[in-house]
Amino acid sequence: MADKLKLILPKGRIQEKVLRLMTRIGLRFDADARSYRPACNDPEIEAKLLKPQNVPALVALGRHDCGFTGRDWVMEQGADVVELLDLGFDPVRLVAAVPEALAAPGALLKRRLVVASEYRNLTLDYIRRKGLDAVFLQSFGATEALPPEDADMIVDNTASGETLRWNRLSVVDELLRSTTRFVAHPGALQDPWKKRKLDELVMLMKSSIFADEKVLLEMNVPSECFESLVRGLPCMRSPTVAPLHGDGGFAVKIAVPARDVRELIPRLVAAGARDILEYRLEKIVVG
After folding, report:
1. Cα dist from 189 to 15, 52, 83, 183, 283, whole Å
2. pLDDT tens string 247-260
3. Which residues pair with residue 4 across a beta bridge?
């Protein structure tokens, strides 16, 4: 039987971003809406769609070689997995939040609390560390709806905090920060074929994520402006320079942070650059 890399794709909130990244690195996954086993255009990859909460334990058990999940679920499960890449997708904070009436200093220590969360292990550890007199209540989604009638505190993830504010909850502590991670079973890295395949995937994903932060600027620069303009150019290493036909100056290419372009282009024009083109990048492989 040919070697296969068994990969778990995340189902739900982070699915779209991960699949878009896979497409950018040349991997397509096709399945109908009811299928959990999408076919991959790479015959060496066998994929399954599962909720991110299931990924750390299944990868740690070696039932799959690798997968995408949140750091929060890796920490919650104490999963023995190797983090290969922080994709930076869907950043959230795992926080403890209470109704406004309990947000006053010391208020939490004056009563027995009901603390609700989907994160059992992280929450119980938090209760112990803070010395709270509390009972844990397992929630199954919509945790923010429980206070004040059914819980005195919740431990939940939040991106903007808007849902917490809408439910009149105040953050009293931050337990951790989480983003989407690509993780692997330690044994997969001991297999030379699987390690090579994983290294290639990580390299391609890194190059695509890095490219999102950069743009390519191409411009024509008259000879008399060239030296002064090039000296002040921001770029990854050195600009790419080629002479224009007929001694008409130089064509210059630079990769620069996308966030700097708004201020950079007027400076380039003032320094003598002309015919400036801006390109979005798909991948940047740094050697």
Report:
1. 25, 21, 11, 11, 25
2. 789 999 988 889 99
3. none
5-89+179-211 folds as D-Maltodextrin-Binding Protein; domain 2 (3.40.190)
Structure tokens at 118: 């989907």
For tokens 């966030």, the residue is 259
- Cβ–Cβ under 8 Å, residues 110 and 168: no
Going by C-beta distance under 8 Å and a sequence separation of 6 or more, which residues neighbour residue 64? 6, 7, 8, 48, 55, 58, 185
pTM passes above 0.70? yes
Can you name the CATH fold of 214-280?
Alpha-Beta Plaits (3.30.70)
Q: What is the pLDDT of residues 175-232, one digit of tens each?
A: 999 999 999 999 999 999 999 999 999 999 999 999 888 899 999 999 998 888 887 7
For residue 127, the one-letter residue type is I
Are 92-178 and 214-280 equal in CATH topology? no
CA-to-CA distance for 161 and 125, rounded, in angstroms?
A: 23
Domain residue spans in the chain? Answer: 5-89+179-211, 92-178, 214-280
Q: Which CATH superfamily is domain 92-178 in?
A: Periplasmic binding protein-like II (3.40.190.10)
